[in-house]
User: What shape does this take?
Amino acid sequence: MKSKLFGSSGVRGLVNVDLTPVLVAKIGLAISTFSKAEKILVGRDTRVSGLMVENALVSGLLAGGVKVNCLGVVPTPVLAYSTGELGADAGVMITASHNPPQYNGIKIFNGDGVAYNEESQNEIESIVENKSFELADWRNIGEASFIDESCLYIEMIRKNVKLNEKWHVIVDPGCGATCYIAPALLESLGCKITAINAQPDGFFPGRSPEPNSESLKSLAKIVKDLGGDIGAAYDGDGDRVTFVDEDGCFVDFDRVLAAYAACVVKRSSGGTVVTNVEASMCVEKMVEARGGKVVRTKVGDVYVAEAMKRCDAVFGGEPCGAWIHPQFHYCPDGILSSVLLLKALEDEGKMLSEFVSEVPRYQTVRVNVACKNEVKHKVMEKVEEGLKSLFPSCRQVSMVDGVRLSLEDGWILVRASGTEPFIRLTVEGESLKAAEGIMEKGVMLVRGLVGEVGR
Ligand code: MG
Assistant: This one.
């Protein structure tokens, strides 16, 4: 195999180029070999290749002797939650999340509905590489059946969250996995629903499966034109949500994360919030002001979920819109997040624009410095010391992912790109001027180190 099979969010690749049915069947067999599972649930998003990948995966699982329950098209959080609820030993989601339609991927969850960590993923990868598969005797080949148990997930939310207002929600599933369940659930909670891009379509004709300010322009316009209270858009597999406020304005990812985190911390009179190294410092500002504490992890929801369990966190999430609500389950859940945000707005008596308005607005700048892949680690070895002497008054140094320094008026993160010949610098400052000042120093340092090591 040319490159690593698993990334920070499972296997991802171009269908029939990287991700072929042959490889998928091997992964299925490797999952069965590694997990020694008796029962595994399988779900998929709406991608054109979904059924092909599912058939190959199920074939591999059956060959290993696993009993397979196929859930059909479901959001990732529904698959993860059902895995725990139905007593399965693992759950496998076939999705490439927010990637373009020609991609697909595989994400694995354990019996508690928590995504496989790096260690487990590496074990599966080595089984595939070494072909150390355990095939079942012909008498013990598994059986596959189709089940529809989405009601369990819907009931879990309906039992725990009651909305008092009749919110007019414009829902945009983007033709992805949430297209049935998100509008239906919100309606059952008493919301008035207008749904767009709500038919399953693996070509994603309405918008990109990645919700962002660009792809949500039509949602924003519809919220404004119809006078809706809020717009909620999900990514291809529904573990992320993105919002448009009542004025039809796209809501900044970091600021809504910070506002919601602050609300949870206030409600629980303190507690830990987990986010990744790239999230804005507005999360600390909001959470610490309410007596909470912020823990930062590497980028990737698996790392956030692991840290949340470790610290017994009250909430966690990444600025891409992947929020984890530990009182329900540990898989990022876009649908649940939208319901809980509405609940938070009710509790605070605010519309979304007002809810987010108290979160400070900071400025972020990003620069990539070219650096050959072979010497990236050598450069990174020297970055910590270099940055510390560059910013002697820094408040905190974190090495969870690259090197991150918290400064008086911002922070700087220096990371080697996992795949490309770059060292990536991210800086956030209280003002653009502050951010650019920090960045200028950082870039000079990294360029100098690249020159030194390259000689
Ligand atoms: Mg996703």
